[in-house]
Amino acid sequence: MSDLIVKAEEVKELVVEKLISAGLSHNHAATVSDVLIHADLRGVHSHGILRTEHYVKRLAKGGINADSDFSVERKGRAAALFDGDNGMGHVIGKEAMDYSIQLSKENGIGIVGVINSSHCGALSYFSEQAAKEDTISMIVTQTDSAVVPFGGAASYFGTNPIAFGFPAKNKRPIILDMATSNVAFGKVLHAREKGESIPPDWGVEEHGHPVTDPSEVKYLLPVGGPKGYGLALAVDVLSGILTGSAFGPSITPMYGNYEEYRRLSHTIITMDAGLFLEKEEFLTSIDQMIEELHEVTPAKGEEEVLVPGEPEQIKQEKYEKHGIPVSRTVYDYLKS
Prior knowledge:
globular, 10 helices, Ribosomal Protein S8, Chain: A, domain 1, single chain, seven-stranded mixed β-sheet, about 40% helix, Wheat Germ Agglutinin (Isolectin 2), domain 1, about 325 residues, 12 strands, alpha+beta
């Protein structure tokens, strides 16, 4: 079944209506919708509007606080602990990033630990948020156990993504947003939705054997073997253990236990682009790096060397002009 091509504004309105009907305020629903549409525009459909039905279900069951009241506790001159009161992670992430940006503007650097959050969507959204303020960012967030540690046959860490954002002067910012698994679990879900097979290095079945049928995936594999495993550990320490939150298999799963708060944690680190040198010099050097990478001789079969996040930015320009591909089942759900 072919996808529908739908303008971003139409999809955004449909998502907002669904979330309001589930109990969210218009402002919070609009922010969540922005983050989801951001992912779809970048072609990361696993983190886009596909997730709306899940959020509505968790809101209905009480696993997300629709009437959350955020609070902030300063932990020194440049650090703070942001309590999301178990609300929507997308809104929590945006407000916590705003707070960290302000800290870094005042002090050169800002660190915000986030507790009592929920799934916050694509981290690239928050990296871009910082880059628009000429602010460098690093964001880490834990997820529930889904990835086998290197050498293991059962999961321990989650996909535990990490994102970096680097503002530029005239070029688009460099945005690196990656799971520490080979893929995010949402991509497996997207393949299931589309009825497509997956590469054998995405996931394994219950005994640890690689599979190509997404419906058989029990656990995911770490990216780069021991390297991805090590990164996943670092992310969980910096988000979970550092903030006094749950970690590893003790994190409430995303699917199931819908009536329970997930109490996820994230850590945001921001730096003013002029921390060590004149801001203009930093921004100009990022432009230069991008240009020099574009000039690297491409490998056979490739047209050009791109910087991290650039393929998604190119796709975004296309989708903003022509519309976003949306599966009929997701569209029908939003219209129902």
